[in-house]
Amino acid sequence: MASLPNALANPSSVLRLPPGRLVDATVDGPWHEPLLWCGDKPVAPGDWASLRAAGRDLGLLPVLLDVDTPRGGPEDWDLDPARVSYPGDHDAREVLDSYRSDFAEDAVEDGPEAEDGHGAGYGHGDDPVGRNAAPDAWQGLAPATEPHPDPDRDAADTADILADGVPWLHQPRPALVPARRSADIPAAIGWTGPVNHDNDVARLCAVLRSWEDRFGARVLALTFDQLVLSVAAPPTTLQHAEAVAAEHYAFCPDNIDQGIHPLPRYAREAVLDTHLWRFWWD
């Protein structure tokens, strides 16, 4: 599919932005057009909503970028747009299925003792998070929740909470990215945070599109290795949250393997009635 015109390449008088810089740095050198605009001042409450209004008609979408990561700001994140495919060419269920199949293959390679998974991604014993669950335990995409009337308003409210300060974002800056939809922002800039899990972030963006449709999710913030979503309509029952948690595990195993586990606990603490989903890849 043809790309939208990049409004950052030829800024118009309509686009009035605070002081900031255009970023075109990639792992292979300068990109042929700006990948994003990043503000110079720390994000303040109201910035996300203001940028959403400013960029809406120009094909630009807001995101918060942490410029104080161990790898610095986005200029130093090894962005790689040349490697990225188009999110719309991938199916969310097929992407998650492929990750689950990879887990099953790992279990076989690890030996019989690793094949004792039980339930829909939930294991126990030496496999507390269910990485080695049988392939037929994976039941596919969880159902959608009742649609939220205004996911962008929910995203703006959640962005304001981040602007007030959270321990895992050090110096977030307001930014704009040329993208068709919020779920495509990581692909639009060639973000490589999950490269050890999948070297084509567009496949993950296909899942983000599905979460956008089913749960009103928006890409709210990025660091070198973290992805933060606002979620306007999260699951409200434990059973539904556990089904979504299984998707999270396929999407980002490190969240559970090196974070909250076992998976039912993750579902209760990080998915159920939770309007902010945060993912981290080692």
Summarize the structure.
The chain has helices at residues 47-55, 92-110, 151-163, 185-189, 201-215, 238-251, 253-257, 263-271, and strands at residues 20-23, 25-26, 29-30, 36-39, 60-66, 172-178, 217-222, 226-231, 276-280. It is an alpha+beta fold and 282 residues long.
* Unreliable residue stretches: 110-126, 128-137
Helix content: 25-40%
Secondary structural class:
alpha+beta
Name the strands of the widest sheet in spatial order: 1-4-6-5-7-8-9
Q: Mean pLDDT score, rounded?
A: 88
- Beta-strand fraction estimate: 15-25%
Number of helices: 8
CA-based gyration radius: 19 Å
Largest sheet, described in full? Answer: 7 strands, mixed
Terminus-to-terminus distance: 32 Å
Count all strands and give the number. 9
What letter string, H or E per element, gives the SSE order? EEEEHEHHEHHEEHHHE
Principal-axis shape equals: globular
